[in-house]
Design goal:
alpha+beta, 38 strands, elongated
């Protein structure tokens, strides 16, 4: 008695699954037209037009029927603890042919094809020699040697590999192709009849990051705002003029000497200054004074401490009333032109890389009464020269940020103040209230600064915090924990990447700010479901990037191991494993953009992110590979 093949059992299970999903579906010549009824909505129109223009209406109908069978097929297959599909031993793979029909490969011989005949309109069965599990075993072995190629000298001649499902082989590309080198590979790497050797021909595949801003030939340039905020690409480096700091009022002492008078001409504080060693003291009636403010003839203030010495640096008179007294010349935070050592700061001062504002003299428009007089460090909102700023409140007060020093100016980002999102540029100027920011997969992002390298938004994910995935090689324009901006110059998140993520998967995570929402759809298409798609040769795949927009084409290679990089930067090349290659082009700026495929009922599953390409092909880092290696989750 002939044992019923596992492939037949799988087909039986998938037929039941299809009938459960679509009870009106009968397996006959009309089925394919029935399947297309649920994809005639306008949301699908753009994709439909692209497919029909490329391959014709019959391919469109056949392809979507094939996709429904593929989805049902994978729906009944078990997975291991790593999320990898466990295939039956007599399954040789499957692909969609040039007419859009599904071809299932089967190992061995059987005459039991009654169920296959029921699907003859949509499925072709072909007999092959090797099971898909056998091919995957060879592929995993070769991938291990790719990843550890420094330990295997013979791998230096191997340019790449991929699973050729149609021909039931694993293709290996050799840089130098001779019979001797093929034999050397078989002896030192792997000798298997599953492997087919080919001469490697460079396709000029490069990473797709744009060095800065939009390329001049970008079709999408006009659809994005080109407004940029005036800020340093290297961090916070404003100068007093950039934050509207006024000229210091009052006369300026000549030189950088200590206070040069011996006896004050007595505006409010008559007495005599004397220097003993490195310290200054103030005498009245021949005695040193303590715990007193001293004002000179120019209206500049100094403070004598409890030890009778003139103070410098931070000084708190009472709870919450802070002053800053000028350090000696040559010391950190010394400020010129305000009266030398010990002089009380007013107006804007940069102290330890933070900008602070100290209450100016009475009569100045920015003077605030009722807070302790001239020189008191300001906190909270500040209105200065028709601009608004926000200065970090004291610990324990509302809106205090413990990451910032007391009184430090907020800048370069979005901050929650009294429950609302407020945005500030790098000079500290308040830009406005931000209610929410929505970004869409495929939109432009800028790395490090609004003028930094341009890439694209990938798919929504979670690493413990919400965000999205993009290409890790975009991070060569910035460092880990650097800022990410959208096309209108708004900061939307923080880059989280490291070398481990760059190698083999080329994926980085962007933690989005609390007010940023990553859309679950792309324009003209509906839902991007949080499921990782398994690529099938010949299946139509779509991608969206900030330069090329929405484009699509069939999968030409699966489980591809490729060296990725730019021809003029060989030192930056890196290996990507188990990638997918689609027959559609990409351009600079598309790096990190989402790739997806149609599932059913206007829903799309996520194939991965575009990481490299040419005008005719796109290399995609697979979703499942990214998630397994990083522990991130779709959401």
């Amino acid at each position: 008695m002939i044992r019923k093949n596992k492939i037949v059992k799988i087909l039986l299970a998938l037929s039941l699954a299809i009938l459960n999903l679509y009870p009106s579906l009968l397996v006959n010549a009309n089925n394919k037209n029935d399947v297309t009824q649920y994809i005639t909505n306008d949301y699908y129109q753009q994709v439909k037009e692209q497919m029909i223009a490329e391959r014709g209406y019959n391919f469109f109908v056949n392809h979507n029927y094939a996709v429904s069978l593929i989805n049902a097929f994978y729906g009944v297959l078990p997975t291991n603890r790593f999320g990898e599909v466990m295939y039956p031993e007599d399954f040789g793979g499957m692909f969609i042919d040039d007419d859009g029909n599904l071809v299932v490969l089967q190992v061995g011989n059987t005459n039991d094809n009654g169920l296959i005949n029921r699907f003859s309109d949509g499925i072709e069965i072909q007999k092959v020699t090797f099971s898909f599990n056998e091919i995957m075993a060879v592929h995993r072995h070769l991938t291990y040697m790719f990843v550890n190629s420094s330990q295997f000298p013979s791998m230096s001649n191997v340019a790449g590999s991929w699973i050729d499902v149609v021909n039931n082989r694993l293709v290996v590309y050799l840089r130098e192709y001779t019979e001797e080198l093929i034999e050397e590979f078989k002896m030192t790497v792997l000798n298997s009849p599953i492997i087919a050797f080919y001469q490697y021909v460079s396709q000029g595949i490069e990473t797709l990051v744009s060095d800065s801003g939009f390329d001049q030939n970008s079709d999408l340039e006009s659809s994005f705002s080109t407004e940029r905020f005036d800020e340093s690409p290297y961090g916070f480096e404003p100068n007093p003029e950039s934050i509207h700091a006024p000229e210091i009022s009052g006369p300026v002492l000549e030189g950088e000497d200590y206070i040069s008078f011996r006896t004050s001409p007595a505006r409010l504080t008559p007495g005599t200054w004397r220097q003993v060693g490195s310290h200054w003291y103030f005498y009245q009636n021949g005695r040193r004074v303590s715990n007193i403010w001293i004002e000179d003839a120019q209206g500049r203030w100094f403070r004598i401490g409890p030890n009778q010495r003139m103070l410098t640096g931070w000084f708190e008179v009472s709870a919450g009333r802070w002053f800053f007294l000028n350090p000696a010349s040559g010391q950190p935070n010394h400020r010129t032109g305000i009266g030398g050592q010990g002089a009380m700061h007013t107006n804007w001062s940069q102290i330890n890389s933070n900008w602070h504002f100290f209450n100016p003299r009475s009569g100045d428009p920015a003077h605030q009464s009722g807070i302790g007089g001239e020189g008191v460090m300001r906190t909270g909102w500040l209105h200065r020269n028709n601009n608004y700023y926000f200065l970090n409140p004291l610990p324990g007060q509302n809106n205090h940020r413990p990451q910032l020093f007391r009184g430090a100016m907020f800048h370069s980002g979005t901050f929650t103040i009294s429950g609302r999102q407020q945005q500030f540029n790098a000079s500290g100027r308040w830009i406005g209230e931000v209610t929410s920011i929505t970004i869409t997969p495929g939109d432009a992002i800028f790395i490090g600064s609004p003028q930094g390298g341009r890439c694209s938004v990938g798919f929504r994910a979670n690493n413990g915090r919400n965000g999205f995935v993009t290409a890790a090689h975009c991070g060569r324009f910035a460092a880990n924990n650097d800022r990410i901006y959208n096309a209108t110059g708004q900061r939307i998140g923080t880059l989280r990447t490291n070398q481990r993520f760059l190698e083999n998967i080329d994926a980085a995570f962007v933690e989005t700010n609390a007010n940023v929402f990553v859309a679950t759809s792309v324009p003209n298409l509906r839902n991007l479901s949080p499921f990782a798609a398994t690529p099938v040769r010949g299946q139509w795949v779509f991608a969206r990037g900030s330069t090329s927009g929405l484009r699509s084409g069939p999968v030409s290679q699966i489980n591809a191991n490729r060296w990725i990089g730019e021809e003029d930067r060989p030192e930056d090349w890196f290996l990507v494993v188990n990638a997918t290659v689609g027959d559609f082009g990409s351009a600079r700026g598309d790096s990190g953009g989402i790739a997806f495929s149609h599932f059913q009922n206007f829903n799309y599953h996520i194939q991965g992110i575009a990481i490299a390409g040419t005008p005719s092909i796109t290399v995609i880092s697979r979703t499942s590979e990214i998630l397994v290696r990083t522990g991130w989750r779709l959401n």
